[in-house]
Design goal:
This protein is of the alpha/beta class. The chain has 3 domains: 39 residues, no CATH class; 137 residues, P-loop containing nucleotide triphosphate hydrolases (Rossmann fold); 65 residues. It contains 10 helices and 8 strands. A 5-stranded parallel sheet has the order 5-6-7-4-8, with helices on both faces. The protein has a 3-stranded antiparallel sheet with strand order 1-2-3, with no helix packed on it. It is elongated, with a radius of gyration of 23 Å. The N and C termini lie far apart (63 Å).
Length: 274
Amino acid sequence: MTGPADGRRSVAVQRDEGIVSTGDNAVNKLVRLPERAVRPAAEVECPVGLSNLPARPALFVGRAGALARLDLACAGGVAVQAVLGRGGIGKSALAARWAAARTDCRPAWWITAGTRAGIDAGLAGLAIAVEPFLATTIPAEALRERAIEWLAAHVGWLLVLDNVNDPGDVRELLARAPTGQFLITSRQATGWQGTAAPVPLGVLTEEEAVTLLRSMLPGIRPVAADGAVELCRELGCLPLAIEQAGLYIVEAAITPRAYLDLLARYPAAMGGPA
């Protein structure tokens, strides 16, 4: 039998009886579980190839320094890294690129972590992915707890917590599951001291920005790329802004210079500076 639940919305499991108690005080809700649902988490193996990572970004240039920094820290045993930067800077794309290369991680799991509810839902999804029968066996609160219990009992996994808004939302999870790798992305530049190794992410270099824009154009004819350098400068070499501009240029069949003219005339409509 386990002890009383003491985490946020945690559960208490009576393993000798197969009963899970859930609720704010781990009382009032009693669910009798099948025997396989109360096996020690350490005995539950990860399904081969388990991953829900997003598709490897098709549009990705540069970032060699940030990728190398993530690799070096991971190889050195750093368990929690946080890619930090403003919106549209490419944090999620970098995380997806780096995570896709971690083929040795079992599982590699992606959680949209903007809210505590989103984090809990992501953990519940992990619990079900590891033990599918749990989807119809235990309540959501218990699924979250089972996932954390499983993570804490295993090594070699990678959990990506994307777009964390408040470092406090993930501190309990990080503390309770210290045996694997966490990669966090966040716009919040402060509050990570003692929690995660920061990896600040800035805009692309001008050369990288132009490469990104040109990669979206239908061909590399000089006329098709006319104004590419000037447009990237105007957009501050921000990846998201460049991608949005590239999509418009292709759809409207215009040149970057024509887009730059539209941006100057209609900054609000084109998403440029007012």
